[in-house]
Amino acid sequence: MLDLKRFRSKSGMMSLLRDDLIQGILGLAVFGLLLVTLHSFAAGPVQAKKLYGLALLFLAVYFWLLTPISYMFTAFLLISLSVMLGIIKPQEAFTGFASTTIFFLLGAFILSLTIEKSNLHKRIALTVLKRFGDNPKQFILGIILIGSFLSMAMPAHAVAALFIPVLLSVYSIYEESELNPHFIKASLLGLSFGTSVGSMGTLLGGARNPLAIEIYFAETGKRISFVEWFIAAIPMVLVMTVMVYIILVKVFDVGGVDMEKLKREIGKEVEEMGDFSMPEGKALGFLISAFISWAILGQVLGMGVVAVFVSVVIALSGTISWDDIAQRLPWGTIFLYGGAISLAFILSEAQTLQLIAYSLLNFAGENPFLLLAVFASITAFLSNVMSNAATTGVILPIALSAMLALGFPSVLPVFLVALPSAFAFMFVVGTPSAALVYSTGHLDQKDFLVPGFILNVIGLAIFLTLGLGWWKLLGYW
Questions:
Q1: Alpha-carbon distance 470 to 233, whole Å?
Q2: What are the Cα distances from residue 400, in Å, to 186, 354, 473?
Q3: φ and ψ at residue 427, rounded to 5 degrees
Q4: Residue 8: helix, strand or coil by DSSP?
Q5: DSSP per-residue string spanning 382-427
Q6: I need a surface site. Which of 179, 259, 417, 432 has the fewest CB within 10 A?
Q7: In whole angstroms, what is the distance from residue 338 CA to residue 179 CA?
Q8: Which sequence spans correspond to the domains of the chain?
Q9: What is the number of other CB atoms lying within 10 angstroms of the CB of residue 42?
Q10: Is 189 within 8 Å of 447 (Cβ atoms)?
Q11: What tens-digit pLDDT sequence spans the chain (477 residues)?
Q12: C-alpha distances in Å from residue 89, one per residue of 40, 80, 85, 154
C-alpha cells in the first residue's frame, strides 16, 4: 500500500502532521484501554500474554492501515511493546530482522537495480509493444504481459515506475484530440493490474511471497522452494493475466487510435537504443544465473545465502556500486518485512494465534474449505486498503494455526493468503503500482473501482476452484 497523503500539497503539511498525531494518539489510547480491559479477564500470566497479543494485533492493523507513522517505526513500536509486556525476551526481539527472508529481499532488490541500471527492462518492453502494436486491444494486452512477465523478475512497483515513462512518451506523440482517453486509462490500469498479477508468480515480484514462506517455516519447520512456488502459482498467474485483459477491454472502449503512428515511434526508440549492450548482457546473465541458483541451490544453501552471493558477484563485476544501492534500495520495505516476521513470532510466542484460530473454529465450524475461503476473501479485500505484506503478516499466521488445529495440510493457506494478497485492484492506495499510475493525472479513483472489484471476485473464484484443483494434482492436500 502507498499512502496517498504524499500526493497532498505542501500547504497542507501542518494539517497532515496534526492528523497523523491525532491518529497515533487515538490508536495508542485504544491499545491502552484494550490492555486494561483484557488484563481484567486474564486468569494468570499465560492467559495474560495471549490477551496482550490481541491488543498488539489490533495496534499492528491500526498503524499499518492508517500509517500515522512509517512502517519502519511501526515495526519498532510493536517489538518494543512486546518486550515491555513480557511477551518475548529482549534477546528475541529482533528475530524477524535476522531472518534469511530479509537477506533474500536485499539480494532480490540489488538484482532489480542492476536490471534497471542496464535498461534491459526498457528494451524488453519496447520490443514487446512493437510486436503488439497492430491494434489498440493488442497493445493493451502487450502492456499487461510486460507488467506480468517483468514482475516475476523484479518488484512489481519497480516495473511500474520504470515503465510509466515509456507509456507517457508514447502518449506524447499524439495530439490531445487524437488519443482516446479510454485507451490511456486501460493501458495504465493494465500496467498496474499486470504487475500485481505477475508478482504472484515468483519470490522476486512480491516480497510478501518470501515473507509467507518464512512464516510457514516458523510455524511448521517446512520450506517451500523457489521452483515449488513457481509451479504452484503460475497457472493462476496465466489465467488472471488473461482475465485482466478481458475485463479492461470490456469496461473501456479502447478503439480509435492510430496504431501505425505509435509503432513508428516505438521503432524509433528501439533504434535509438542501438545494439544489445554489454551492461544489458550482464544483467540478463545475472538474472538467469540467479533463477538457476535459486532453483538448484535454494533448498541446500538457503534462498538468502544464494541471493547475497549473487549480489556480491554483481558488485565484483563492477555492474553496480554501493552508492547505487544505498540511494535506491527501499529500506522502509525491508523494515516492514522484518517487523511482519517479528509480529508473527511474537503472536506465536504469546499463543495468541492459537487463541484466535480456536475461536474461529468454534464460530465457523470445522470445515477447512470454508475457513480457507474466509481467509482468502479477507486477505483479498483487506489488501486493497493495507500493505499486502502487512495483510499477509497478520492473516497467514492465524490461517496456519487454524489449519494445523484441524490437522489439514498447512501449505494450502500459504498460497490462499499470500497469492490473493496481490488482489489490490480496487483502490489507488492498494499498491505502489496503483498510486504511481494514478499520479500521472490520467486516472481517477472511480476508474479503479469497477474493474478492480470484478477482478477481486473473479480472482477469488479462480483460486478456490482452479487453484485448489491444481494444488490437489500437485499433492498439496
A1: 9
A2: 37, 9, 21
A3: -130, 155
A4: coil
A5: HTTTS-HHHHHHHHHHHHHHHHHHHT--THHHHHHHHTGGG---SS
A6: 259
A7: 45
A8: 1-92, 94-477
A9: 14
A10: yes
A11: 444 444 444 444 444 445 888 889 999 999 999 999 988 888 788 888 888 888 988 898 788 777 788 777 888 898 899 999 988 888 888 877 877 778 877 887 888 788 878 878 778 777 777 778 778 899 899 899 989 988 888 778 778 877 887 788 778 777 777 778 899 999 999 999 999 999 999 887 777 888 898 889 888 888 898 889 999 999 999 999 999 999 999 999 988 777 777 777 777 777 777 888 888 889 889 888 888 888 788 777 877 888 889 899 998 988 888 888 888 777 776 777 777 778 778 887 888 877 777 777 777 677 888 888 888 988 888 787 667 777 888 888 888 888 888 888 889 989 989 999 999 898 776 777 887 788 788 888 789 989 999 999 999 999 999 999 999 999 888
A12: 23, 10, 10, 36
In whole angstroms, give the CA distance from residue 160 to residue 150.
10
Handedness of CA 441, 446, 449, 452 (dihedral sign): negative
203: nearest Cα among 151, 240, 238: 151
- In angstroms, the CA 124 to CA 16 distance is 41
- Angle at which helices 331-349 and 45-66 pack, to 10 degrees? 160
Distance between CA atoms of residues 314 and 283, nearest Å: 9
Q: Who's near 169: CB < 8 A, 6+ residues apart?
A: 265, 269
The answer to whether residues 425 and 456 touch, using CB atoms and an 8 Å cutoff, is yes
Rg of the chain over all Cα atoms, to the nearest angstrom: 23
> Residues, the chain, total?
477
